[in-house]
Design brief:
about 250 residues; mainly beta; 15-stranded mixed sheet; two-stranded antiparallel sheet; 3 helices; 17 strands; about 10% helix
Amino acid sequence: MKFAARMHLTAALVLASAFATLHAAHAADKKDKAKPASPQIVDSGSFGVFIKGQRVVTETFKIEQQNGASIVKSQLKETSGANAANQKSELDMTANGELLRYEWSQASGGSLNVAPSNDFLMERTTVSGNGKPAEQSFLMPSTTVILDNNFFVHREVLAWRYLGSACKPEAGNLKCTQGPTQFGALVPQDHTSMSVRMELVGKEKISIRGAERELLRLNFSGEDFEWALWLDDHDQFKLIRVAIPADSTEVVRD
């Protein structure tokens, strides 16, 4: 995918504190300790990725919670080509945001996984089905954000993490700590770590498929990238649109 070079710059997952802040009204009266917890679908759907107005990739995703764990699954499919699902990933975390495991694979061969190992994150990469895995360790905590290439649902999860940790409701509005909040992140496909920042801008009116909507804007940036994210604060803070001006790229929820 041509846009992958710049889209390797972001995401992580849903902390219990984030859901407590953003979704408490939906969860307060739904506990039944006598029965096993059923999976709760937090969000599901698809994103269209457009470069210079042309759709190039569709990402289909699902985020669910079960038995204190959060699970993010995603598949990427190019608009042309023989592979039905070019890439897929799964990110599993505990209720307090600690990484359990991350797995990625592609239809053409090759896979990787990341898991905590003592004070490190250990990444194991297999180039082909019969190849011996190569290992690389990162001296990073298990709460590190996983931001893999091209998975925009990871960006949504990072936005929730930011809102849950740096913001609180006040008089019907979100009040966040002044200035950007910094996160340490791991990009498994690039075998690298980085520092990223997120900051609340406020409400903006933007056009989505010809209709004007008022959405919550966040600025997301790093050493060599700047993105804008828009979330719907009237619908569980779902990610609606991403703009990446440097790549003439736009991502829109279907």
